[in-house]
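Tokens for chain A. Residues wanted.
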């Protein structure tokens, strides 16, 4: 893939994954709580945070620390919008704990991204 296509592809992945999250939140009939619910939320937003880090680093000239902060804020805000969306889905309801787990997943992605970036700088 050429460098010109990398930003487009990375943002397409972000949009696609946000679509997956939206679709999963639109599913009705999911009323049984289990620990896997939180694992799913954490994992969805771990992936979203990673995709946002990649997209921001490939398409913007911002400093790495700024890109990480923006990725975290965008993922967390998308988590808020996801919980609001669930208020309109039959059998679903917004939950602050879900949003917190979403943000925790995105934070883990940004933290791992920062560690990898720091190691890459040390190795060069």
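Reply:
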């Amino acid at each position: 893939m050429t460098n010109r296509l990398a930003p487009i592809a990375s943002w397409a992945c972000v949009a696609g994954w946000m679509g997956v999250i939206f679709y999963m939140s639109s599913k009705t009939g999911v009323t049984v709580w289990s620990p896997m619910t939180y694992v799913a939320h954490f994992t969805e937003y771990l992936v979203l945070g990673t995709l946002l880090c990649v997209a921001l680093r490939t398409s913007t000239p911002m400093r790495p620390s700024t890109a990480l902060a923006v990725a975290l804020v965008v993922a967390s805000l998308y988590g808020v919008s996801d919980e609001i969306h669930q208020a309109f889905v039959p059998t679903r309801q917004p939950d602050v704990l879900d949003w917190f787990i979403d943000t925790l997943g995105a934070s883990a992605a940004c933290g791992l991204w920062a560690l990898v970036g720091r190691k890459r700088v040390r190795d060069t």
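The first helix runs from residue 5 to 26. The chain has one domain: 5-123.
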